[in-house]
Backbone:
């Protein structure tokens, strides 16, 4: 079994590093793991605050909004409709939840996240706001979910997000007015299986499942100012595949690390719009054993990396303004008063490369309250 465990560790870390750009700092994190160490689950609490259902990643901030330039009203040579887009409106689905299986436990959780995408970005640097007809996308996400482990090896996880979105763009009756829209709707549900029976300590596992098209992707005003990339739902059914690995960095288990990656592949689409394939990864370290009274306190530092391919279809942005790579640093802290747990973090972008003019956010905030039963 040691050889299988080493192989899984190498594969997980290699994929996470492969998805990070060479300029990212995540590539040096795992190098410190060496010899066999104590069971990481033998501690009273040794669960990194991350989300092991990496889907949709979630996709976060610098969450780029894929926004394409529209032609100015004074220009007369228009061959086709120019669409604005914001397919970076999602959030990271990795690196943000204390949801790694530990024995036969069941957890109900509610996650709240907030991001304000108001910076126009082109390539690897900020661009003039006048180059993008979209001006701001501000979103509040509320996502209830449940993880249920049938035994130490098998479990399921399900969640149904809700989102409130404020969108400011150029449009209206004249096509040149600044209009503001605000709407609330459910997002795309996620249903995943979990298997972590490779080793007795549950240190490695895989996730697999589907994202379902439950979210609204047809909300609009009478001027069609909201494009498909800005909708809360994608309209697609996606295959979700992921994996995770965790272990100790010190012999006593005080300092530990984890790696996680996920892949989101749209397979069934609607209304001539196919979202880009997305991959999200996380590398993190966390400190065990701290307490304030009876409350366990776990500081966590993560590096998040997201890759998304370009959207396609007649209702995707034209010219192309979708697809990105982004790297974020995410300091966070977890408070554990069993059976309740509270996790909070902020995610700061350190690198972003986007195709076309897209809106991005300066940071992302996330809070997760969970109850283990």
Residues:
């Amino acid at each position: 079994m040691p050889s299988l465990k080493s192989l899984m560790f190498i594969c997980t870390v290699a994929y996470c590093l492969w998805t990070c750009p060479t300029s990212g700092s995540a590539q040096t994190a795992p190098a410190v793991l060496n010899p066999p160490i104590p069971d990481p689950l033998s501690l009273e609490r040794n669960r990194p605050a991350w989300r092991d259902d990496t889907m949709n990643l979630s996709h976060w901030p610098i969450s780029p909004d894929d926004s394409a330039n529209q032609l100015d009203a004074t220009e007369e040579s228009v061959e086709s409709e120019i669409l604005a887009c914001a397919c970076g409106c999602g959030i990271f689905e990795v690196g943000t939840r204390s949801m790694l299986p530990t024995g036969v436990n069941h957890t109900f959780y509610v996650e709240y996240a907030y991001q304000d995408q108001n910076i126009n970005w082109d390539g690897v640097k900020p661009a003039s706001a006048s180059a993008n007809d979209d001006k701001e996308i501000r979103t509040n996400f509320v996502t209830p979910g449940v993880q249920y482990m049938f035994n130490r090896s098998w479990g399921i996880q399900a969640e149904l997000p809700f989102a409130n979105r404020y969108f400011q763009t150029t449009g209206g009756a004249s096509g040149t007015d600044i209009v503001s829209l605000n709407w609330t709707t459910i997002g795309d549900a996620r249903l995943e299986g979990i298997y972590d029976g490779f080793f007795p300590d549950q240190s490695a596992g895989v996730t697999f499942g589907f994202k379902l098209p439950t979210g609204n992707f047809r909300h609009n005003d009478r001027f069609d100012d909201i494009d498909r990339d800005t909708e809360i739902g994608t309209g697609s059914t996606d295959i979700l595949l992921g994996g995770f690995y965790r272990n100790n960095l010190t012999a006593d288990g005080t300092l530990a690390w984890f790696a996680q990656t996920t892949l989101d592949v749209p397979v069934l689409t609607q209304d001539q719009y196919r979202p880009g394939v997305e991959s999200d990864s996380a590398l993190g370290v966390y400190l065990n054993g701290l307490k304030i009274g009876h409350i366990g306190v776990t500081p966590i530092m993560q590096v998040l990396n997201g890759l998304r391919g370009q959207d396609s279809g007649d209702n995707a942005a034209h010219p192309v303004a979708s697809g990105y790579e982004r790297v974020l640093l995410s300091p966070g802290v977890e408070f554990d008063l069993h059976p309740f747990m509270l996790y909070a973090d902020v995610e700061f972008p350190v690198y972003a490369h986007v195709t076309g003019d897209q809106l991005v956010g300066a940071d992302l905030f996330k809070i997760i309250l969970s109850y283990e039963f």
